[in-house]
């Protein structure tokens, strides 16, 4: 009997160790990419002397206020949608697109880069363990729900890179032509069932439809209409709707709009346009799919001499109503807001204010936003933002 008890204790101990080694790193990670080489306050991107290397800030919302860890010398950029970071469902890896580098022949300009960092989140401290070659100017990224496949939009090539994820190994397996380079494919979103992806052709003014079968991705040639220049694109957790936000002429005054696309209609089509503020930069869907957040420039990205220049950007909260969304709350925030992300429990919303080098944190209560007053300083101009699933 004692021998049986001993074996049982060994089995329990082994099981506990197995769980310890396979359990998610944290359920509440938010990662901010911070760069130090391109300033936006003059009204157009311009190279500035780097005051420090680019960096990554990792926020852990297991408690509030969140703990923060900064990792230096991880190149990333503000050029591209703030979805340049993606985190695997098991929260053990992050992919960080490095879309450009300064031009060695002309220090006031930049040229496309062509790789994605692989960041190991399970080590202490987290560290970059490799890089994967992509097309030119890798930008918005998305990881499939099963964690085995990632898609990265390559803006300078008009392509999407397909990456295979096996444990901590990430490799490029396919390149899919989506549009012409001048149409600027910027972001990509994968549906919850892993069978569909939508890529935003920003300058083309449409979303391209991709089909996923196993690890093979095919461009179907289908195009979905969108307001303005679609940039960030997301799909609701139930797979019913896709949402993208686009900028029109960009004078800092005219209200732009979110496009709502019905993915279950035959054929898929745009069914609604929701006016929000001027020049939306990023949007994000809440984990339960009930809320959508958007950050808008509202003139804060215009030069100081522009008559429509504003000192503040904005954040807009929308709530789902059937097969569309409606605006329920708006707040002023700092200048040039870039990324926005809900924590994985949906209780907090984090956004970036680029020139202020700050992350703002709002709580989400009773379907509204409340400024928590928490401001997290980061060692660079925050440019990309993603929360763990």
What can you see in these coordinates?
By secondary structure, the chain is mostly beta strands. It has a single domain, classed as Methylamine Dehydrogenase, Chain H. Helix content is 5%, strand content 55%. It has one helix at 2-22, and strands at residues 29-35, 38-39, 46-47, 55-60, 67-72, 85-87, 93-103, 106-120, 127-133, 138-143, 149-154, 159-166, 169-177, 185-190, 196-201, 206-213, 216-225, 229-235, 241-247, 257-262, 269-275, 280-285, 291-296, 313-321, 324-333, 337-342, 348-353, 358-365, 368-377, 381-387. Strands 5-4-1-30 form a four-stranded antiparallel β-sheet, with no helix packed on it. 50% of the residues are buried.
What is this structure's SSE topology?
Blueprint: H1 2-22, E1 29-35, E2 38-39, E3 46-47, E4 55-60, E5 67-72, E6 85-87, E7 93-103, E8 106-120, E9 127-133, E10 138-143, E11 149-154, E12 159-166, E13 169-177, E14 185-190, E15 196-201, E16 206-213, E17 216-225, E18 229-235, E19 241-247, E20 257-262, E21 269-275, E22 280-285, E23 291-296, E24 313-321, E25 324-333, E26 337-342, E27 348-353, E28 358-365, E29 368-377, E30 381-387
Antiparallel strand pairs: 1-4, 1-30, 2-3, 4-5, 6-7, 7-8, 8-9, 10-11, 11-12, 12-13, 14-15, 15-16, 16-17, 18-19, 19-20, 20-21, 22-23, 23-24, 24-25, 26-27, 27-28, 28-29
């Amino acid at each position: 009997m004692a021998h049986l008890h001993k074996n049982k204790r060994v089995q329990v101990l082994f099981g506990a160790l197995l769980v310890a080694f396979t359990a998610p790193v944290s359920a509440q990670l938010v990662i901010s990419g911070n760069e130090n080489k391109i300033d936006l306050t003059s009204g157009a991107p311009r190279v500035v002397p780097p005051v420090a290397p680019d960096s990554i800030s990792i926020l852990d919302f297991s408690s509030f206020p969140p703990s923060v860890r900064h990792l230096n010398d991880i190149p990333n950029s503000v050029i591209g949608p703030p979805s340049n970071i993606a985190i695997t469902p098991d929260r053990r890896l992050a992919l960080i697109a490095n879309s450009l580098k300064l031009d060695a022949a002309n220090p006031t300009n930049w040229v496309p880069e062509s790789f994605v960092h692989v960041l190991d989140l399970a080590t202490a401290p987290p560290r970059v363990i490799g890089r994967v070659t992509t097309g030119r100017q890798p930008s918005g990224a998305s990881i499939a729900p099963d964690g085995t496949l990632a898609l990265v939009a390559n803006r300078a090539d008009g392509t999407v890179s397909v990456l295979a994820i096996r444990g901590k190994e990430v490799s490029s397996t396919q390149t899919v032509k989506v549009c012409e380079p001048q149409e600027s494919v910027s972001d990509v979103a994968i549906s919850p069932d892993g069978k569909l992806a939508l890529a935003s052709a920003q300058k083309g003014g449409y979303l391209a439809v991709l089909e996923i079968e196993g690890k093979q991705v095919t461009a179907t040639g289908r195009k979905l209409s969108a307001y303005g220049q679609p940039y960030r694109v997301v799909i609701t957790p139930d797979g019913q709707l896709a949402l993208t936000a686009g900028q029109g002429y960009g004078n800092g005054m005219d209200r732009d709009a979110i496009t709502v696309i019905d993915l279950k209609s035959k054929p898929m089509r745009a069914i609604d346009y929701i006016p929000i503020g001027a020049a939306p930069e990023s949007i994000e869907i809440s984990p339960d799919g009930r809320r959508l957040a958007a950050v808008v420039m509202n003139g804060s990205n215009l030069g100081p001499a522009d008559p429509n220049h504003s000192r503040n950007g904005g954040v807009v909260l929308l709530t789902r109503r059937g097969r569309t969304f409606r605006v329920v709350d708006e707040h002023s925030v700092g200048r040039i807001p870039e990324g926005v992300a809900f924590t994985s429990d949906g209780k907090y919303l984090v956004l970036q204010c680029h020139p202020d080098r700050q992350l703002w944190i709002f709580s989400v209560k009773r379907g509204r936003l409340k400024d928590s007053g928490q401001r997290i300083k980061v060692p660079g101009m925050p440019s990309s933002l993603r929360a763990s699933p």
